[in-house]
């Protein structure tokens, strides 16, 4: 925020594409919290994963021919090269961390400790876990924050309510305390309503291990299917006629059915980073609404698009005014 202010010192109002900025921010947060390193050190890994995502999206949008992925086509070779390079970058990060990790309790140190135990993780498994965290921790959280800021820029009344709540509890402290985070009822309702309308992961893939009956549907074993998070989150039978509208108030009451809202999935494969994501989102939102009023830029084009996570296709330009 200080950098934004510095860059636009002279101006009463300035525009920022928050999508890009928040992507860098959550990359920094996951690098520090999970790996004890900076965004700069993880940058290469994020970059390689970005390229891998683009190739994966291309493959997902092409006709699937069994076995095709093993042929030495340009894209297949590139995918293999990216995978190899990513693993090497993660391996280097692990080696560096192994040397200087006294008193460190981040995820990477814990994984390394687990790998040193008898019958513990192997190095390849540690690398797999690190890759998952790098990928899972960045675009999901930045997506949540981006959509939340866009919605607040559009719904001034909720922006005012959030600001009032933050100012009441933070009492001039720019950075909210851990206790403040529990007090933020309105902010939490806003974040939940954002996750309902724009879930960063719009669908889950699941497989049946045995024959099952789902309502009237008989599903045989070994069937793979999609569970559409977005369809359930937008269902008028569950959420009422205003299901497509932004109304955080609906989260003031507890829900009748747990499975009507599952942006972080449910059950044994539930998101392990959900608390970190919510803490990060509450802190960032609180700091922004305390310092700025937000309005949607006229250049914003509403085009939610799927790039593995739900993203604004043409960015998220927001007008900021210092308060
Ligand atoms: C708003 C932010 C986030 C959302 C909406 C989100 C959503 C999800 C969802 C829906 C899944 C289940 C995927 C599936 O089973 O197919 C998942 C899994 C996972 N998430 Fe998140 N996530 C978020 C943030 C994070 C963060 C910050 C981290 C890392 C600290 C993280 C780490 C993971 C991991 C490691 C898994 C895999 C768990 C497993 O397979 O057992 N997520 N997430």
From TrEMBL:
It is found in: Membrane. The keyword ATP-binding does not apply. The keyword Acyltransferase does not apply. SUPFAM superfamilies: Cytochrome P450 (SSF48264). It comes from the Eukaryota. GO terms for molecular function: heme binding; iron ion binding; monooxygenase activity; oxidoreductase activity, acting on paired donors, with incorporation or reduction of molecular oxygen. Heme binds at residue 271. InterPro entries: Cyt_P450, Cyt_P450_E_grp-I, Cyt_P450_sf, Cytochrome_P450_Monooxygen. Its cofactor is heme. GO terms for cellular component: membrane. Keywords: Heme, Iron, Membrane, Metal-binding, Monooxygenase, Oxidoreductase, Transmembrane, Transmembrane helix. Belongs to the cytochrome P450 family. This is Cytochrome.
